[in-house]
Amino acid sequence: MQTMTTIGLDIAKSVFQVHGVDAAGAVVIRRQLKRRSVLAFFQKLPPCLVGTEACASSHYWSRELQALGHTVRLMPPAYVKPNVKRQKNDMADAEAICEAVTRANMRFVPTKTPEQQSCLMLHRTRHLFIRQQTAVINSIRAHLAEFGIVAPVGRKGVTELLHIVADPNDKRVSEVARACLAALGDQLLGLKRQILEFDRMIMAWQRSNQTSKRLHYIPGVGPMLATALVASVADPRPSDQHVTSRPGLGSFPSSTQAGARSGSAASANKAIAIYAACSWLVHWPSSATPRSTAASIGPGSRRCWGGARSHGP
After folding, report:
1. How much is the mean pLDDT over the chain?
2. For domain 6-100, which CATH number applies: 3.30.40.230, 3.40.50.720, 3.40.50.620, 3.30.420.140?
3. Which SS3 state, helix, strand or coil, does residue 10 take?
4. Most buried residue, 90, 113, 212, 238, by most Cβ within 10 Å?
């Protein structure tokens, strides 16, 4: 068998597709791999360049293959799609990945650590619980409105409604409806307790991460945004090329895109500005931040932004 130098790996839940070429670009292997056989297959190969799409479970496989000595490059699926030569299937996707990873102008996604993925999971789970909390509150309000019972908008109004549900002497609500609303009230209280626990976990993670603590000095950046940014951006150091677009931050609307909204562009610019500050803070040695200086760089202070402009990457 010829020596493979580049491999395109199309990952999936159960069946993986491999497309390998040699240094001249000639196809060496095209085959499917069961999930249990992936690591055993790559263990037998000499170190080579492995490309794959940045999708579900890609960061896990990237870490596993890097541990075997391979060089792994993750790419946004949108950048791989133009290289598909024919109808979309696993074999065509693997070939497109193999070709895209060798492009000189390709933009890659840094591999996240397990700690970063855990923090992102924490944020996403908290966001899920907040959506569920909103759905339960809306259900309680809608059900009681059918009995002519309404309350002001806000937490205080929901509390008033729960007091009405808990009052057995209030005959405006039937017993069956009261039982259903009481169950919704218990679910709402449980969601609130869990959200508060998630908030404590995020605060603890923020205090344990140096980059997150430094980002917290930027005006307008709290623990939620700081931890989410550190977890989302695997490598905050500026790259030598394509520094204007970082796949770790996601896709931002282009200024020339038809119908682009000014609000979305403003959010993108804010995220890019925070990312630039993140890059600067990572390279700012802790010894260069005396306590007196750190204390003065807080919310409302302009020294942080002035320093970022003068020491920026």
Report:
1. 80
2. 3.30.420.140
3. strand
4. 212
The answer to whether residues 30 and 18 touch, using CB atoms and an 8 Å cutoff, is yes
The pTM of this model reads: 0.72
Please say whether the beta carbons of 54 and 8 come within 8 A: no
| Residue ranges of domains in the chain | 6-100, 114-207, 219-311
State the DSSP H helix or E strand holding residue 85, giving kind and residue range, or none if neither.
none
Write the CB contacts of 160 (distance below 8 Å, at least 6 apart in sequence): 151, 152
How far, in Å, CA of 222 to CA of 230, rounded? 12
Instruction: Give pLDDT tens digits for 136-181.
Output: 999 999 999 999 999 988 888 999 999 999 998 888 999 999 999 9
Q: Are 294 and 217 in contact (CB under 8 A)?
A: yes
Amino acid (one-letter) located at 20: G
Instruction: Please list, in sequence order, all residues whose beta carbon lies within 8 angstroms of the beta carbon of residue 32, skipping any fewer than 6 positions away.
Output: 15, 16, 17, 18, 90
